[in-house]
Amino acid sequence: MVLKLPPLEFTEAVADSPEFREKLRQHENELENTSNAIKSLIKKLNEVLVANKTLSKASRGVAETLKSFKFYVVGTKQTDEERDIESSLSYMGEVLHRIEEARDALNTSSETYLKKLDEFRKTTIGKAKNKKKEFDKTTQRYCAMIENNMKIPTKRSDLFQEADANLQMQTKKFREETLDYVFLLQQVQERKKFDFVETLLALMLNFLSFYHAGQEIYKEFDYFIRFLHYRVLKCRENFDCFQREGEELKWKMLMRPEEHLSKNQEFDREGYLFLIERNKLIGTTAITKHYCQFRKDINLFRMITFTQTSTKQLTPYDVFVRHCIVHPADEKLDKRFMFDLHAIEKGGSSDKMSIFTFQAMNEEDFEGWVFITGGQINVSKPELSLKTEMQNELDDSGIDFVKKCIQVIERRGLDEQGLYRVVGMQSKVNSLVAGHFDAHKTLAQRLATPVEEDMELKTICSALKLFLRTLKEPVFTFKLHNRFIEAAMIDDKAERIRTLHSLIKELPKENYDLLYVLMTHLHKVSEHNEKNLMTPVNLGVCFGPSLLRPEFETVSSIYDIKFRNAIVELIIIHYDKMFKTKLEQQDIDEMVGSSEQDQASGVNLSNSLSSLVSLTRRGAPPATSEMIETTADARRRGLYNPDYHINETNKHLFPYMPEDNTRKESSSSSSLESLTNVSPAGTQSIHSSNAFSIISNQIRSISSSSFTKQISSSENQGRLSTTSTNISISSKLEPTNISSSTIRTTAISSMTNPTSKLQTRAITLYPCTADNDSELSFNAHEIVTQIRRTKEPGWLMGTINGKTGLIPENYISFTSGV
Known about the structure:
alpha+beta, Substrate Binding Domain Of Dnak, Chain:A, Domain 2, 24 helices, elongated, GRAF_fam, AH/BAR_dom_sf, Rho GTPase-activating protein 26
């Protein structure tokens, strides 16, 4: 707001009229208000500087914490991604330090400009205030002289000449003081426009230069953001794979704990037992809990006094078992599950036998301990036949099956989204593999068994993965497994490549041939990643756990999944060099250089496996009526057991595999959140840079009105860009056959009104044939009314032509004009 003051004319100042005095008072009041406003402004700016210093101190504390933060990784070695993520925190701290150094420079220069503002207030405005005091005194003297001169009587004519001369001289001096004061006031008003504003402008430019320095730091930081995001995505994919394998191992441990506990253990049996000791003198019985271990080859029995609720642990006590008997019935010890061990203390005489009475926790535990220590139990139980899992041989028929699957896939579906990631129906996958490797078929019959061309691609892909997963020995063999993992842990990339190449040549011929065929195919698949979304990283996650399966499944082996995936990823990318007879140094340099170049180029976020959530959760709707039969199975999956067509006697051949399940919502939603959070940040930073350049140009030459227009235009463009970015991200998750206008409408409505209720009317997009009485059959472009939600995800209840039933949610479109 601009306040207008009347000019102080010199003629009015000489006349010294009441109007002049009123104008003079307005100027003086305005000058006082200006002085107070500048004083208040300086105070507020000082508060900003103090807050800046406080913020700088806190930010430096954050930077130091980031630099001293340490990651503890489970396992003996770190992957390249884990090493980069660990060092990234230190780099973040360095970036914060650079920002705070720029903030310190801002504070130092700002203090200088604040001193200039205060100097303007004290000197320029202060000079006018001092002049006002002198003018007031001169006015008082002049008025007093006039009054005294008026009091001279006519009788004193001798005083007239002197009095008139003094009055004339005082009048001249008063007018001179008045004109000087009036001119000084107007000078201060004019100087305020450039002296004060120029200093304030320099201060504002100082602030903007700090933000510009932040923008420059961001430009340097941009590469790091993309690089680190690429590493984080790889770690996320490894975690998803780790989670699947961990769930599978946990399930196996719950189903068959004894089988897994006995594998790769130093002792044949271990667990908690209660040692019962009787004192015959005083007739008391003491029961203590021990953790016991037994090694059958040397009959070593170890006891450790320990309870889970106590951290105190005693020294192990070892004895050698001679024989074991079931504790006879005893009135004084009337307890179940008791047995006696006749043993010799370690280092003791063989003639001195000690008897230890133990009590097991349950019948199964009791029988297990008695049996393993050589005792006899007079209880006959029918032996249960153990069901064995499917196991395939890697022979000519196996390689032939893989080649047939690959031929069909390459002929029909290299551009299929989510290839090898979207799983087929379990019953169809099991039927395909079991039919091809039927034990009653001869080798010639297996080789003659075709892979049907009209079969769904996801079924063929899942069958190929199931075959690799159920091999008796994985493609990379149990013998070379540890050496492959150790090679992947080598820090030097060139040495890592050289070691992996030599290990591949050590594979048996059948394994080598199958690996070459498979890697050649997967390389072709990765070349189409713009359409199928399957990059070498994603394919490594899909095939690493199967190709490099460990002999004994443990949690430690699951932590090695990241190295298994990295091995497969490397071979897929450089399959032409990794299968050379001799690897030249030039080849190694090219492989190392290309991997670093790929990391530097960033990552296509849309190719992350996490972006396939919508595909794995529910297949995209068909484009034509010819595909209705193939998608019906996917729609039925939520309504009945997928193992319905499997014979009960053969169901044990196809164990539950968590790898065939879709990802959990938590990991997928967090990946999608990371996708939606990246673009807007980049958009805002670009607009801040544009705003700075606009301000700089306006300071030089452009008028204030055009400056305001461009700023508002820039803000509008920023809002539009952010909106369009969000819409484009949302559109990637919609079915591919829906029009772009529908996608935009859906995205905008979901952003503007996220809590809107489900509409009750819609229109069908595609024809659909019902699979059972609870579903509705309909054609395209039919009206659906009375729509309401159901407990079944992805299904709605609606009415079409007077009939009510279930309708797939992605087969209809909610349109306000229906």
